[in-house]
C-alpha cells in the first residue's frame, strides 16, 4: 500500500513574505556567521514545523520568529525583530492598510 | 523606506545589541516603573503618547508605552525603517521634531502620513556601558513647539528610566558561563 503523496503547499509568491524571510536569514547570518546563521534558521524552521527552504507566509514566519526569540543567545534578538515585523504586517493586513504603509516598498 | 539600516550602521553594532540582551530588554512583561515614567513624560509635556523604545537590529520595540492604541499597541513596535528612534541611536543625541511632515528625517515614514504622528521629541538612553539602546520619547498627533526645558525634563527622566533598565542587567557570568558575543 502506498501513501498518498503529500500535496505540495501552494506557492507563496507574495513578495513581502519572500523578502521578510530573506531579511531574517540575512540578520541571522550577520549575527552568527554565514553557516551558523543558516543552521539556526533551519533549526528554528524545523522546530516550528515549516520547510526552511521554501518561502513562508506570515503566520509561518511568526512561528519561526517565536522559536528564535526563545533562544538563549544572540539569535533571540533576531527572533524578536522578526516577530515585531511580522506582527506589524499581520495587523496592517487585517486592517487592510498594509499596502498604504509599504507604498510599493517591501522592506527590502 | 528611506531610513533602512546598512551594514556599518551603529544600529547593528554588536556591542550595542549585546547590551540589549544583557539588559533583557525584549521581555514580554511590561515593567511597571517604566510604564509610570512614560506616562509621566507624556502628561508633563501635554502630549498623548510616551514610549521607551529599544532599537533592535531590524525593528523597534516598545519596552514601555502610554497612550498607544490600535495596531501599534498590538504589534508593540515597528519595522526599523519606519522608526524615528534609529536616528537617536545613530547620533547619540536628542531628536526634536515639531512638525514631522516637514522634517527630512521623519517625513518619509508611514507613521507620519498614515498614523498622523506629527510631533516627536526623544532623548537617548545611554547605558553604563556607553551604549545607546533606544530612546525615551513623546509623540503628538499635531505639530508641537518643544523648548529647551522640555528636553531637559526628558533628559532627567531618562536617567530614571536607565536606573530601571540597569536593574535588569544579566550578570556577565551566569552559572559560570560567559555570555557569548554577538
SSE order and pairing:
The complex is a heterodimer of chains A (108) and B (182).
Chain A lengths: L14 H18 L1 H15 L9 H12 L5 H20 L3 H5 L6
Helix pairs in contact in A: 1-2, 1-4, 2-3, 3-4
Chain B lengths: L13 H9 L9 H13 L4 E7 L3 E8 L3 H6 L1 E3 L5 H7 L3 E3 L12 H4 L5 E8 L5 E9 L7 H19 L6 E2 L2 E2 L4
Antiparallel strand pairs in B: 1-2, 1-6, 2-3, 4-5, 5-6, 7-8
Helix pairs in contact in B: 2-6
Describe the overall structure.
The complex is a heterodimer of chains A (108) and B (182). By secondary structure, chain A is mainly alpha-helical. Chain A is 65% helix and 0% strand. Chain A has 5 helices and no strands. The longest helix of chain B is centred in the last third of the chain and has 19 residues, at 148-166. Chain B is α+β, with helices and mostly antiparallel strands and 182 residues long. Chain B is built from 6 helices and 8 strands. The mean pLDDT of chain B is 91. In chain B, helix 2 runs antiparallel to helix 6 (148-166). Chain B starts with 13 loop residues before the first helix and ends with a strand. Classes of the chains: A mainly alpha (108), B alpha+beta (182). The A-B interface holds A 23-24, 27, 30-31, 69, 73-74, 76-78, 80-82, 84-85, 87-88, 91-92, 94-95, 97, 100-103, 105, 107 and B 1, 4, 7, 12, 14, 17-18, 20-21, 26, 56-61, 70-71, 74-82, 110, 114, 180-182.
* Global outline of chain A: elongated
Structural class of chain B: alpha+beta
- Main beta sheet of chain B: 6 strands, antiparallel
- Total helix count of chain B? 6
Mean pLDDT of chain B: 91
Low-confidence regions of chain B: none
Strands side by side in the biggest sheet of chain B: 3-2-1-6-5-4
Global Rg of chain B:
16 Å
**Assembly state of the chains shown:** heterodimer
Q: Given the C-alpha coordinates, what overall shape of chain B results? A: globular
Helix content of chain B: 25-40%
- Low-pLDDT parts of chain A are 6-13
Number of E-state strands of chain A: 0
How many angstroms does the end-to-end distance of chain B come to?
A: 27 Å
N-to-C series of helices and strands of chain A = HHHHH
Number of helices of chain A: 5
Q: What's the average pLDDT of chain A?
A: 85
Structure class of chain A: mainly alpha
Q: What percent strand of chain B?
A: 15-25%
Strand content of chain A: under 5%
State the separation between the terminal residues of chain A, measured CA to CA.
Answer: 47 Å
Amino acid at each position: 500500500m502506498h501513501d498518498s503523496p503529500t500535496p505540495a503547499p501552494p506557492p507563496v509568491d507574495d513578495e513581502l513574505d519572500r523578502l521578510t524571510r530573506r531579511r531574517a536569514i540575512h540578520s541571522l547570518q550577520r549575527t552568527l556567521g554565514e553557516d551558523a546563521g543558516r543552521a539556526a534558521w533551519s533549526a528554528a524552521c524545523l522546530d516550528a514545523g515549516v520547510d526552511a527552504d521554501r518561502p513562508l507566509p506570515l503566520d509561518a514566519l511568526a512561528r519561526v520568529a517565536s522559536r528564535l526569540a526563545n533562544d538563549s543567545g544572540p539569535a533571540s534578538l533576531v527572533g524578536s525583530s522578526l516577530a515585531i515585523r511580522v506582527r506589524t504586517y499581520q495587523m496592517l493586513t487585517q486592517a487592510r492598510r498594509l499596502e498604504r504603509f509599504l507604498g510599493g516598498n517591501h522592506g527590502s | 523606506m528611506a531610513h533602512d539600516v546598512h551594514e556599518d550602521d551603529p544600529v547593528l553594532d554588536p556591542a550595542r545589541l549585546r547590551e540589549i540582551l544583557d539588559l533583557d530588554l525584549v521581555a514580554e512583561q511590561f515593567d511597571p516603573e517604566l510604564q509610570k515614567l512614560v506616562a509621566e513624560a507624556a502628561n508633563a509635556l501635554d502630549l498623548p503618547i510616551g514610549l521607551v523604545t529599544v532599537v533592535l537590529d531590524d525593528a523597534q520595540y516598545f519596552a514601555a508605552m502610554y497612550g498607544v492604541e490600535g495596531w501599534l499597541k498590538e504589534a508593540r513596535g515597528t519595522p526599523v525603517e519606519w522608526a524615528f528612534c534609529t536616528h537617536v541611536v545613530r547620533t547619540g543625541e536628542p531628536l526634536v521634531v515639531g512638525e514631522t511632515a516637514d522634517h527630512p528625517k521623519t517625513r518619509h515614514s508611514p507613521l507620519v502620513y498614515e498614523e498622523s504622528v506629527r510631533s516627536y521629541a526623544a532623548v537617548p538612553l545611554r547605558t553604563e556601558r556607553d551604549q545607546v539602546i533606544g530612546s525615551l520619547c513623546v509623540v503628538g498627533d499635531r505639530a508641537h513647539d518643544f523648548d529647551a526645558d522640555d528636553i531637559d525634563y526628558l533628559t532627567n527622566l531618562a536617567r530614571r528610566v536607565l536606573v530601571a533598565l540597569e536593574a535588569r542587567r544579566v550578570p556577565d557570568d551566569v552559572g559560570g558561563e560567559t555570555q557569548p558575543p554577538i
